Amino acid sequence: MTTPSEQPSRRDEQRDTQPDGQLPSVEYGLIRAHVFASLATLLISVGFGIVVATKFTFPEFLGGHAWLTWGRLRYNHTQGIFFGWLGNAFLAFLYYVVPRLANRPVLSRTLGWFLFWIWNCAVVLPGWVLVAAGFSQPLEWAEFPLVVDAFVVLAFILMVFEFVLPFLRARLSDLYVSAWYIIGGIIFTMLAYPVGNLVPELVPGARGAAFSGLWIHDAVGLYVTPFALAIAYYVIPATTRRAIFSHFLSMVGFWVLFFTYPLNGTHHYVYSAIPMAAQKGAIIASAYLGMDVILVVTNLLLSLRGSSGTVGRDVPLRFVWFGVVSYLLVSLQGSVQALMPVNRFIHFTDWVIGHSHFAMIGFASFLALGGIAHVWQRIPGTRYNQRTMNWSFWLLAAGLTLMVADLTIAGLVEAQVWASSAPWIESVRAVASYWLVRTFSGLPVLAGFVLFWTSLISGPRPSPATALAASREVSEDIAAPEGDPPTSHGAPSTRRFSYAHVVIFGAGVGFFALSFLVLAILPGKELEDEIERVAPVTMPTLTASERRGRVVYGREGCAYCHTQQIRFLAEDVRRFGAPTETWETKYDYPQLWGTRRIGPDLSREFNVRPRDWQLTHLYNPRLVVQDSMMPPFSWLFSGSPDRPAQEALDVLAYIESLGRARQLSGFERQALASSVEPGTADMAMAGEPSARATPATVPIPMTGGYSLSAPVLHPASDPADLQEEVSRGCVVFAANCASCHGPGGAGDGKASASLIPKPANLTAARFSDERLSSVLWNGVAGSSMPPWRQLPTEDLRALVAFIQSLHVPGSAPSTQAATSLNEAESLFAANCASCHGARGDGNGPVAGALAPQPTNFHLKKPNPEKVLEVLANGLPGTAMPPWNIQLSVDQRNALAEFLPSLYDAPRESSKE
Amino acid sequence: MINLIVIVISAMMLALLLGWWRWPAFRAWIEAPKYSMLRQERRFDDQNAR
Question: Is residue A572 located within the same domain as residue A712?
Fold first, then answer.
């Protein structure tokens, strides 16, 4: 875009003459040290990632150890990539490129080694150890604990001295675009890092989330992207020996990126309680960012015009080219994902995970690899193995392509299931095979990285001069060197532009501050006002146990699978309940909203499930949810679910506190009164999905029993149809019920050992259509039986048919020594009627206060053997006590004989 | 908010494009670093080759 006549020479001449015409020294030792540190931490981090991915399919894989749990490994995976791999790779490149761009050496070799040891031995390694030991921060891209964060900030301050000062000593107006990206990346990350890591610890809930959102995007936009683009802008012209297409466009791209990237953050919380103006501002900024990336990538690809053969031959350049193309694709993908019509469906899905892997591997890692390989080829005494590096490229490209495609499809499948009324576990089942493919896709990626390292250490060892000569041969074979500016071209005066970059830099800092003002501080003020206006006066705080549980919940990464953020969307409300409001999060230090849903949202968990279910689920989720992929937390127990350690009880206490303030304050009742319609059940039966899901504004009551308003599901009367329903019910039962009730329905499932009351023995009683329909629709209050109304009507009806088919008629007990039926009736009236009612309807005087409610013998007709068993042992976890002391064997036999007369006889006659 | 972002960024882009189109000196000044970068790269290569 510039004619030769416009090429200036004066500044080049000035540069040539300083200082003493000598070139600055380059710290090759530091380059090599950072390269090896980057690759070592890369392999470890990818290893963490593959274990994490494997646990999606095999949750028990490497289980049973606190430091190998999914959450901690996930934290170490992302932080290892962020600091260990990319941080060291970028630093290696900086030591190579800063002396070239600034024409001055970095500030100090000693400072460089100090920085190396701080980065690796005070940030990466201690960070990993502390996270594994349970000291972490449950904030995305900020998982290392605060003590490590302090060293990160210190490292960035040192980077300012080491890398920015040499540039400041040069003339700012003379800086190449890579230098601008380096300066901007160091300074803006230094400013943004403490804000993103510290502020959410001080500002709670939704207000803190606004800051977290900023950092999530700043981590990519102000740290990863600038250094990666600095590599692209350097390697392309240095390899092709041709100037980039337009430095003007590169600077436009640079400043628009720094202006708009910080404004993107809140697009991670679209449809949340954060003010809509901030959300829409972030979405607009995302669109601008997409346009800016088109500009940047167009400029970079035009810089490669005529060099397609070079890209094919030169592997480092090919890495860079792949990274640049990935940058375009992933950025446009991100802009689309931020748009509200798309975001409402795909947010929290695996597509977002695919997007982040695309960004961190396809864009950042490919550019970092290209930068390292480019440098390795040009520093004294090192050279890579071309063949091995070529294999590395193709393995990485293939693995990444498979991974991104797989996660994209998985995300779309999840979105489809979430938009339906299917139970949550269906989304887990639907993408299970995709998770397996994702794990396998990580293997070529790991192999590619291993080969990359191998190529660096297996290359020929030429003398420095030979290496450089060879390097130049390669380059000059590719294209004739360019860049000798004309000695006389009538250069116009550019003095008036001398301070333009300073002005623009000031504007950049201003935009950075503006991003915090408009996306965090102003929305935060608005949210604070809303809390004051809306929050109940007596909102309970967390107890000591709940606070401890919150810490455990955070350190184990629970928030990375379970959101605590019900969005203002029909799909969310229908599935989880009323949207999360700001005041509900006023005590959340730091916020645990989450940005991913593998398990369901937990915002309304208060009063939903009994403790033994929760503890059993925490001990081993597959005991109660057969296809769950949640990792077991057995190390929080002393060998069994009914022997929880204090930390398990703390986690349970915390989970049970979620949504408590809302329910106790009466918000739920208000919402219920305005939302529940009398015909809800009928609507559901007619296929109206909005009425099918559990309205979480109405958590299952612990007392008061099941609702009799549930629709009655009658199995087919035609024997052939009935048999078909039974077969279908068998499948549904195996998938959803067998883990508690056992494969044969005898109440002996894997979870039964730790559930109180025990799951019902479905073979020992005849259940009426009404009873089964009611239980399936509403669950059983006071037990671990949840509602299953999310299942399709056909499945529910099939379950009724199947469960009724399980009943095994029993034989009547021996009555040889039994007293008369009249005496048994008197016994029932004296001992049982207060709970079960005079006619066994389960409506005795005290029944209303019991949960689970006493059995209604007209709806659940137990066999005599079951009656005798219950009379002898009681029903642990219910109000039914054992009667083996108060009643003799004969009396209990008499009652077992008498009971069928309550439900086998016509009720009219009973009344008579 | 949205209007502010759109207006500010659009105005800056227009100003830059205007500067590019109107002042050749600006054009020459802002394009210069891409050549100096290449010269510097060659100088390093030459020195190392020696």
Answer: no
Domain boundaries, chain B: 2-49
Domain-embedded: residue A494: no
Instruction: Tell me what percent of chain A is helix, strand and coil, each rounded to the nearest 5.
Output: 65, 0, 35
User: Measuring CA to CA, which residue among A358, A456, A336 is closest to residue A406?
Assistant: A358
Determine, yes or no, domain membership for A70.
yes
Per-residue confidence (pLDDT) for residue A494, from 0 to 100: 53
Q: Read off the pLDDT of residues A331-342 as tens digits, 9 standing for 90 and up.
A: 999 999 999 999
Looking only at the bridges linking them, the beta strands covering A860-862 and A765-767 are antiparallel
- Asked whether residue A802 is domain-assigned, the answer is yes
Q: Is A508 part of any domain?
A: no
What pLDDT does A465 receive?
54
Q: How many CB atoms lie within 10 A of CB A328?
A: 18
B19 touches chain A (CB under 8 A): no
Q: Are residues A358 and A290 in the same domain?
A: yes
Structural domain including A865 reads 821-911
ipTM of the complex: 0.94
Same domain, A785 and A831: no
CA A122-A77-A96 angle, to 5 degrees, is: 60
B41 touches chain A (CB under 8 A): yes
DSSP-derived 3-state class of residue A763: coil
Q: Same domain, yes or no, for A414 and A342? A: yes
Interface probe for A, chosen from B14, B22, B27, B48 (most Cβ of A below 10 Å), is B48
Which of B6, B40, B43, B47 should be substituted to probe chain A, the one whose Cβ sees the most A Cβ atoms within 10 Å?
B40
What is the tally of structural domains in chain A? Answer: 4
Q: Nearest C-alpha of chain B: how many angstroms from A498?
A: 9
Does residue A121 share a domain with residue A223? yes
Same structural domain for residues A331 and A420? yes
Q: Are A439 and A406 in contact (CB under 8 A)?
A: no
Contact flag B31-A465 (C-beta cutoff 8 Å):
no
Q: Tell me the C-alpha distance between A897 and B12, whole Å.
A: 90
**Pair A668, A721 in one domain:** no
Residue among A907, A771, A908 nearest A840 (CA): A907
A242 contacts in chain B (CB < 8 Å): 38
CATH at residue A571: 1.10.760.10
Chain B residue with Cα closest to A517: B1
Q: Is the pLDDT of residue A681 over 70?
A: no
Contact check, Cβ <8 Å, B31/A248: yes
**Do A648 and A709 belong to one domain?**
no
Gap between the Cα atoms of A303 and A246, Å rounded? 8
Cβ partners under 8 Å of residue A130, min gap 6: A136, A144, A145, A147, A148
State the pLDDT at residue A609.
Answer: 81
Alpha-carbon separation of residue A485 from A4, A15, A299, B33 (angstroms): 7, 13, 21, 11
Angle between helices A146-159 and A177-202 (to 10 degrees): 160
